[in-house]
Amino acid sequence: MTFRAATKQAGAVVLFNGRDLSNWGTRHGRLASWKVEDGILHVLPGAGDIITKELLTDFFLHLEFRCPDMPDAEGQAKGNSGVFLQGRYEIQILDSYGIQIPGKGDCGAIYDQFAPLVNACQPPMMWQTYDVVFRSARVEDGRAVERAALTVFHNELVIHNNIRLPGVTKAAIDEQEGEPGPLLLQDHGDLVAFRNIWAVPLPLEGSSTCEPR
Length: 213
Prior knowledge:
This protein is mostly beta strands. The chain has strands at 13-14, 24-26, 35-37, 40-42, 50-52, 59-66, 81-85, 89-93, 128-135, 138-140, 143-146, 149-154, 157-164, 184-185, 193-201. It has no helices and 15 strands.
């Protein structure tokens, strides 16, 4: 299944403005210090993960990323980063180009939980897209009555089809499932770059009536 990557929609929240990191901080409440140049956000190795000030519940996310060319590296040392939805659920970024059957640690995986259905990776140094529909966990009396769910398109190919997540992934900011949370971009020490990051908040539920309005 293919999907035409969306242009920025009306009502979208621009998470990266292409100029600075005024909308971003760190896990520890400090100012974000990654490099911004020519509309591109570059990981600054050693500076730590960055998170948005904007908190999200249910949303559609568009994000573009580029892995560095690291021909001598292997596995998790090859263009590694991650996108954490609500700061809790990681979609892996990695140079997994050419891998026939990707696993739970390859690009597009929900880290250590679900492997992507197919390998949709472009070669390193090419821009790639993630488009994500995310539905937050529903919690009542401290218990998840409905698990977080998501659908992910990588370079316009569906790689996760409405999967239910069993819980947060490793390195999550917390385990407060169901609470609004930020978008987190991971510093894993590699020179991954990002651009065109925006999200559209989604209604938590539709109308209960079938009568025309």
